[in-house]
Specification:
69 residues, mainly alpha, 0% strand, sporulation, SspI, Small, acid-soluble spore protein I
Protein backbone atom coordinates (compact mmCIF):
# COMPACT_ATOMS: atom_id res chain seq x y z
CA UNK A 1 0.00 0.00 0.00
CA UNK A 2 1.28 3.44 -0.87
CA UNK A 3 2.37 5.47 2.15
CA UNK A 4 0.60 8.53 0.74
CA UNK A 5 -2.68 6.67 1.09
CA UNK A 6 -1.86 5.80 4.72
CA UNK A 7 -0.99 9.42 5.46
CA UNK A 8 -4.12 10.77 3.76
CA UNK A 9 -6.44 8.37 5.56
CA UNK A 10 -4.74 9.05 8.89
CA UNK A 11 -5.10 12.81 8.37
CA UNK A 12 -8.76 12.47 7.35
CA UNK A 13 -9.78 10.57 10.48
CA UNK A 14 -7.49 12.21 13.03
CA UNK A 15 -9.47 13.06 16.16
CA UNK A 16 -12.55 10.98 15.29
CA UNK A 17 -14.53 9.46 18.14
CA UNK A 18 -15.12 5.74 18.60
CA UNK A 19 -18.71 6.20 17.39
CA UNK A 20 -17.49 7.97 14.25
CA UNK A 21 -15.00 5.16 13.54
CA UNK A 22 -17.78 2.62 13.97
CA UNK A 23 -19.95 4.53 11.50
CA UNK A 24 -17.08 4.72 8.99
CA UNK A 25 -16.41 0.99 9.20
CA UNK A 26 -20.07 -0.01 9.02
CA UNK A 27 -20.68 2.33 6.09
CA UNK A 28 -17.65 1.01 4.18
CA UNK A 29 -18.74 -2.59 4.73
CA UNK A 30 -22.37 -1.96 3.84
CA UNK A 31 -21.43 -0.19 0.60
CA UNK A 32 -19.20 -3.06 -0.46
CA UNK A 33 -17.18 -0.77 -2.72
CA UNK A 34 -13.63 -1.94 -3.32
CA UNK A 35 -12.16 1.55 -3.34
CA UNK A 36 -12.96 1.74 0.39
CA UNK A 37 -10.82 -1.32 1.22
CA UNK A 38 -7.52 0.57 1.53
CA UNK A 39 -9.05 2.71 4.28
CA UNK A 40 -10.18 -0.34 6.19
CA UNK A 41 -6.71 -1.77 5.68
CA UNK A 42 -5.17 1.31 7.29
CA UNK A 43 -7.58 0.95 10.22
CA UNK A 44 -6.61 -2.69 10.57
CA UNK A 45 -2.90 -1.91 10.41
CA UNK A 46 -3.20 0.71 13.17
CA UNK A 47 -5.24 -1.68 15.32
CA UNK A 48 -2.78 -4.54 14.78
CA UNK A 49 0.21 -2.38 15.75
CA UNK A 50 -1.44 -1.34 19.01
CA UNK A 51 -2.92 -4.72 19.96
CA UNK A 52 -1.50 -7.21 22.37
CA UNK A 53 -0.36 -10.61 21.20
CA UNK A 54 -3.47 -12.17 22.76
CA UNK A 55 -5.77 -9.74 20.93
CA UNK A 56 -4.00 -10.51 17.66
CA UNK A 57 -4.28 -14.25 18.29
CA UNK A 58 -8.00 -13.95 19.07
CA UNK A 59 -8.48 -11.99 15.85
CA UNK A 60 -6.69 -14.48 13.62
CA UNK A 61 -8.69 -17.29 15.24
CA UNK A 62 -11.89 -15.43 14.26
CA UNK A 63 -10.57 -15.00 10.75
CA UNK A 64 -9.83 -18.70 10.52
CA UNK A 65 -13.43 -19.47 11.50
CA UNK A 66 -14.87 -16.80 9.22
CA UNK A 67 -13.03 -18.10 6.17
CA UNK A 68 -13.60 -21.78 6.92
CA UNK A 69 -17.12 -21.71 5.47
Amino acid sequence: MNFQIRDAITANVHGQSAAEFKDIVEDAISRGEEHLLPGLGVFFEKWWQQSSTSEQEAFVQKLEKAFAH
